[in-house]
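<amino_acid_chain>
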Amino acid sequence: MTANYFKSYFKNEVYIGFFNSKNQISDRIRYYYPTRFLNLRKDPFKLKRVIFSIVVLLQKLLRIDRLKNSNYKIKKGSNWFSIKKKYIANILEFDDSIFMYSFLADELYIQTILGDFEDSIDNKDGNCRYIDWDRGRPYVFTEKDARELSNLINTKYSFARKVNNANIPRKIFQDL
């Protein structure tokens, strides 16, 4: 987005992005996860994943349920979002201890806290990020993608992910 378009666009409400998830997203918080101690990304033999699964299975057998006495409506979405400052107090005042020792809570945190606003906020454009999951995990845009990205200027996307080369934004905006 150009600077003027950006300022005008964000005079609207917030852009959080809520995903309808069919899997048990509440299980990410329901049990205690040893993620601080087990880096699952660096696990070539999948041993840490086995330990992780055993820990969760034991908690299920012991009927551990961190959500048992709560009224949380667990929501899921992207960990990237744009909000107006009037919503910051809701986030800061929220007792976020339920997210401690959870699994992938960055995709649940904001949506759960602001979930009551889901129907009242402008959510039509999701989180305003252009992310290509089809060509990568996510795809890293290169200079050859400059035309594709320039076609998205002043649309519902305020950011592109992932762009690792500083020449790409220069090339995209050079003719404006």
About this structure: The longest strand covers residues 129-131.
